[in-house]
């Protein structure tokens, strides 16, 4: 997980980690909030959906749109694709403490955060720019 997320963001210390057969969750401090060029960064949901359809991992940095709104828009246009994102994000809550869940849900609904999704491994990440941290979530695959 750390290696995968570290390809996209400059990770600092691990703040939280838990994993089971059903889920994996992690929270990482960041050394910076820049997204590395190892993942396409899209500014529209349509372009991101096209890349996801090709099996490419994507960072959705859509202005004034929260990760929750991105996943809802994808689900409206492509139910299986949207459900993949939703299931990864929701299942991982079972591997989080109440405090981590609260922070994670706040990041998911903030418009200044970035949603990352890798369809090949159902890996979801959220870049919380305000608090300079990243959340990683994966349901059972």
**Biggest sheet descriptor:** 7 strands, mixed
Q: Would you tell me the structural class of the helices and strands?
A: alpha+beta
The helicity comes to 25-40%
What is the average per-residue confidence, as pLDDT, rounded to a whole number? Answer: 89
Order of helices and strands: HEEEHEHHHEEE
Into which percentage range does the β-strand content fall?
25-35%
Q: End-to-end distance, in Å?
A: 14 Å
Strand arrangement, major sheet: 1-2-7-6-5-4-3
Rg (CA only): 13 Å
Oligomer: single chain
Helical segment count:
5
User: What general outline do the C-alpha atoms trace?
Assistant: globular
Structure description:
The protein is of the alpha+beta class and 141 residues long. Helix content is 35%, strand content 33%. It is built from 5 helices and 7 strands; from the N terminus they run αβββαβαααβββ. A hairpin with a 4-residue loop joins strand 5 (114-118) and strand 6. The chain starts with a helix and ends with a strand. The mean pLDDT is 89.
